[in-house]
Amino acid sequence: MKVERLMVRNVIVCRLDDNLETAARIMWDNDCGCVPVVDVGNHLVGILTDRDICMAAYIQGRRLSEMHVSSAMSRDVFTCKPSDAIASAEENLRLHQVRRLPVVDESGSVVGILSLNDIVCEAERERGQKGKRQITSDQVATTLAAICAHRSPPQSVAVA
Fold it and tell me: Is the pLDDT of residue 157 over 90?
């Protein structure tokens, strides 16, 4: 199975100079947890998550309307192509401990996004079918466990 079969195609993007309020509104209105960030040529240059927005607001102590997307986004973006196998995309999710992969064409333009949710929903859909499944519950569990694994041992936190 190829990524193009499961990816979401109508991806809303934002630009480097958009403010975080605009990006948060995009996420709220479209029920999504991240927005790919593109340059003026529509090429992928970063990704912004709802967590990135929250942390930027906390750390910078400014209004979302006063901060640019470029100040909070991750520039270290992992991608896949529409023709990639789902197994390859899952390996990418596990390796980089991310829940979403922007799907880009040969020129680096965003053509979709593949999320762990898309893979999970397909595994559930296939579960009710007879015959060989392309995505198994075991594969999904392995991917989720890898994504959720602590990168370093959690620190003890004193609660007052």
Answer: no
